[in-house]
Amino acid sequence: MKEQGHRIVFVTGKGGVGKSIVAAATAMQMARAGGDVLLVEFGSRSFYGSLFGLPVDQAAAGEAVHWQPRIDISRWDAESALREYLTHYLVFKSASNRILGATAMKALMAVAPGLSELAVLGKLTAPMRHRWYQRDAAVVVVDGYATGQFMSLLRAPRGLAATAGSGPLHNQAKAITNLLCDPAICEYRLVTLAEEIPVAEACEMAADLRAETGIAPTIFCNRLLDLPSRLPAVPAGTPAASFLEDLARISRRQKRGLTQLTAVGKKLEGAVRRLPMIPNMHPRHLVEQLADALEAST
Amino acid sequence: MRALIEHHRVIVCAGSGGVGKTTTSAALAVAAAKLGRRVLVLTIDPARRLATALGIARRADDVRVARQNYAGELWAGLVDPRQVFTDYILRYAGDRATAKRLFDNALYRQLSTTLSGSQEFTSLSRLRDAAESGKYDLVILDTPPAAQAVDFLRAPEKLNAVFDSAVVSMFMGRAGGFGIAAAAWKRSVKLLLGTLALLTDSEFVANFSSFFAAIDAIAPAIRETNLDARRLLLDRSTAFVLITNYDAAKIQEGEAFHGELRAAGYHLRKIIVNRAWPAWAKDDKPTRQAVEEQLTALGQRPLAALHAALCAYHDRRGTTHIRFKEILTVPEMEGDIIGLPALERLAAYLCPPVEDA
After folding, report:
1. Which residues touch B302 (CB under 8 Å, ≥6 apart)?
2. N or C, fewer C-beta in 10 Å, chain B?
3. Class of B2-276+330-348 per CATH?
4. What pTM was computed for the model?
């Protein structure tokens, strides 16, 4: 399996926990370790394009844009991935263009359950399934969807394999499912914050991921403040009082969150890692410092 | 904020995931009820404890929130896409046999849950019905979770791709017109179905065709709801509120959303920036210095440094440039906002009570 294809690192988490930044930092971490990295984002509009000032949206869907040494960024959408897939199966290219240009194509994608998800996952895993499919990357880091949508993405191949009873699509869906469950190929990173609702959601999703793929995700608890185990007490009304009160609250929240996450990590046999709060607004510096933290945490 | 709540019939709360949209929508509803309005807040995916606090954990109909003591009335409703589609089918499918065929179709079973745009459509459908019911002075819609705020505006287009009359007709084999264009259309649909048959099996294709045959019955009603909803959203009595938080990416997104709303003729009335900063980050310079001196004197140099770093960070966040003027920043609130009392605290911040003379 190893001589062909690449590894895949999926990064997911609840909205607002810093998932996309952690994905970018993961790409940087992988690039530093050696090997070319492709950072893939989904959706109709590029996040990294506006964040790093790159022409990701201007590039044709699926085309990679160079970000920094060893890292390219690419935005994929389901429609162009499905087009790529169907074109391969349609012998006559002129006929395929006529079909794929039509509104019927949009309707098909909207209705057929899991077809657009399968198209994206199919593209992602193509180098591992086809000798003719070349991708110059040792690792693909996927800035996945948020929690619920990400689980639908992962479940799509299994669902489609069941609906499309037999035929090539069925077999491909099964092959993709197998690849998603292969720990030699896939790694899942689940980002969360040490706050009540994100932690509860992360615990639930970690169990779902493990059940779906058999692989325990690595949980990254993001934006932690480095606080002493015991905070000093000051009289109320003195200057530092409200700051220290706030820190005490944050400290309790962090401890509680980490305890819960560690318990889940233990149960699922997955690691829990800590990432610091980085008080920096500059996107590039932020990603670099987070990549340092990722290296330090492993 | 008070004018916003008092002078509108509909408030649409948009924003990307993780910015506190649902909580803020609920708090706005509390503020409106306090001002004497009969208000309904509609939400699709509330955190479990918020749903419990509002009493909508497992309810399809709107409920009057328990333990309230306001001048107006606070109601809450859960948008359940499955339920909304079921209602459409029962109402418009004509006969039971058609309805049953659709319920049994493998593709339909995915329609209400995974079809892109279906959450937005069902939210809008509920919004329209509630706004027209006459039961409420104000309806607040918490838009479905999305990666980006603009996704909400694009959803109807996506759904129209399925319910478009031409598409439905074509898949059913009815020619939607004459001439070369219609013929080419028909050919391409045939070819597409042929390709599908090659890739899957005939049962899958049969499913596909029977799905379109079945939704033919409800497609006109769905299109009409989409049109009504669009009209309602464009009305001057409908206010859009963007809920966001302070980071570079979110601010950029806010600007883009503002532009897109304006271009489409919607009325963005307010941007609410959540968790803008903790109270201590607003201290003036001498106070900050005093904090750091006190910490240093306690032998807590690292904490003093942390204080300085966080204050500087919040200052930089505060200077982020935004063109839009109607902005309300909300400080970091204590703890998670879950129960009704916590919502009341947030409501009091969003819309401070006016002292009566």
Report:
1. A226, A228
2. C
3. alpha beta
4. 0.84
